[in-house]
Write a structure and sequence with these properties.
Blueprint: H1 2-25, H2 29-46, H3 63-72, H4 81-86, H5 89-101
């Protein structure tokens, strides 16, 4: 009986650590929204774009399409290449999480305001 309880407790604890590790890999969507907007604000101040509003709303693509864009690392359609090249992997992960969470096929599609 004690052995069974120990096995069960060990399984629960290991699943808890796995869940926490998976949550760490996913970015922060609030930070992602902030960083996404800051990229275009900096780009606008530099004069490359006419407005500081991002050209693509999160609902412009499906979740799968956002995943393909970020896995390929091709950010050409976003414009502002200089700013995108300067982003850390963590910043890109945060932006991805924001865009993916509010994609057109997500439970909460969102347009930038």
């Amino acid at each position: 009986m004690k052995r069974t309880m120990l096995v069960i407790m060990a399984a629960v604890i290991s699943f808890s650590f796995v869940g926490a590790a998976m949550a760490i890999e996913q970015g922060n969507k609030r930070k992602g929204k902030y960083i996404y907007r800051k990229v275009y604000q900096a780009c606008n101040e530099r004069g490359e774009v006419d407005t500081s509003k991002p050209p693509l709303n999160p609902d412009a693509k499906t979740q799968d399409q956002w995943t393909q864009v970020f896995e390929a690392g091709k950010f050409d359609e976003f414009g502002c290449k200089q700013e995108w090249d300067q982003l850390s992997e963590e910043d890109k992960s945060n932006i991805y999480t924001y865009l993916h969470a509010h994609a057109s096929d997500s439970p909460t599609p969102l347009k930038c305001k």
